[in-house]
Amino acid sequence: MIEVHGKLVCESLAEVLRPSRAGLLVVDVQNDYCSPGGTLDRTGGDISMTRGVVPAVVEMVDAARRHGVRVIWIQQTCLPDGASDSPAWIYMKRRNGVRPDHCLDGTWGQQLVAPLEPRADEPVVKKHRSSAFVGTDLDLILRATRIETTIVIGVMSEGCVESTARDAAFYDYYVVLTPDCMASDILAWHEASVTTMSGRHDMVPWREIVQHWEAATTQSAVPPSLSPAAAAATWPGLSATTSTPSEMLQTDYSARL
Question: Can 34 be counted among the known catalytic residues?
């Protein structure tokens, strides 16, 4: 960490990705975007990329859980009868060919793609716009659990993933994106988003992120060594010049005789 204007700031990617400060936001990996028979598939969209990214998402979620990184699930949600849609939002959806019943609350299409399944202690945030911060309690959840870094994965790269990542930065979170753990129905749009967002935020392959988590976990598992002076202050009777565990034990034993 480095101090800038009296504030501690992460100085390296390893610090940004430290499990104790990171949260994994899994955005919109839902049947209507990723599964055969979902609305994207039924309306002629290409789900090869969105479906193809699912195994990587599964592996990254599993890795996050192993290393104590909090997982937050984001679900695009449309309320029945257009209750969550303004006229402007309906216009945008119609312009882009989005069916009014996509990700309809309570339907199979809104559900996460198997085998993804939130655990009981993992929040599920339902959103009605592209950004997971708009009209939701996501910011409250992140701050309540002291998350400082948002790692954003999922679909669509140029849409809800990018929108959520941009807002995360605007809400003062560190932002990390993963080019191989996000996807779109249009490859060119995915690539454009990766190029654009790489200019603003860390764009890190998911396996490299997991390597940082593993290194941090290994480091935190090694107990810090005490200097001889600190050891003497902690355990009265030890010599401040003692430097090895065997010597400390011998000195302690002698002090008790």
Answer: no
* 226 has a pLDDT exceeding 70: no
Catalytic residue among 126, 160, 167, 185: 160
The backbone region for 5, taken as left when phi is positive above 0, alpha when psi lies in -120 to 50, beta otherwise, is left
Q: Which of 32, 103, 127, 167 is catalytic?
A: 127
Mean pLDDT rounded to a whole number for the chain: 88
Looking at 3.30.365.10, 3.40.50.300, 3.40.50.10330, 3.40.50.850, the CATH number of the domain 11-220 comes to: 3.40.50.850
What beta strand segments (E) does the chain contain? 2-4, 7-9, 22-27, 70-76, 124-127, 149-155, 174-183, 202-203
Rounded to two decimals, what is the model's pTM? 0.84
Pairing of strands 7-9, 2-4: antiparallel
